[in-house]
Amino acid sequence: MRDDRTIRRCDAAFTQSVQQQSEQNMALCYQCGNCTAGCPVARASSTPVTQVMRLVQAGQREAALGADSIWLCASCETCTTRCPNDIDVARVMDVLRHMARRENHVAEKNIRDFWDAFLESVEKHGRVYEVGLMAAYVRKTGRFWTDADLAPAALGKGKLPLRPHPVTDKEAIRQIFRRYRERSA
């Protein structure tokens, strides 16, 4: 049986860590709801952005890192633009996603698999190679026929090039990933 005091305990170190990594003052959020009201993926999420911000303020590590909205976030920055206190909410969501990834919290496995495939594509090619991205996503999820009906139309319009786009300085991209891994270790 779980002790309710454990669930409600404030992890101040978690809040401090999110603030430090995002360079945002979480105390400035007064729960106006503008971030959630403008969020294009709010309807798909069971945990609104406003609630995620409150969970961070309250030091609720497990609940915040387990929120599906950190994986559903499109990083469009609408929440950031709408915040009356100039909190970069999208950056906070990004930090939470990275923390969840490092701690293996997976609220939305297929979305995490898509993010992983996306980042692998950028690391390997310097930018997204759409066909390779989809192949990696299918390999990770086993969803072989997902959206397969869209491929002929996309190929016909030249939206799915069969070769990656050339990038002049792939080494600079690799260095970015190296620095990220060093900082995450």
From TrEMBL:
Keyword match Iron: yes
Iron listed as a keyword: yes
Name this protein carries in UniProt: Heterodisulfide reductase, C subunit
Residue ranges of coiled coil: none
Keywords: 4Fe-4S, Iron, Iron-sulfur, Metal-binding, Oxidoreductase
GO MF term (any one): oxidoreductase activity
Domain 4Fe-4S ferredoxin-type as annotated: residue spans: 20-49
Xref: InterPro entries: 4Fe4S_Fe-S-bd (IPR017896), 4Fe4S_Fe_S_CS (IPR017900), HdrC_iron-sulfur_subunit (IPR051460), Helical_ferredxn (IPR009051)
Gene Ontology CC: plasma membrane
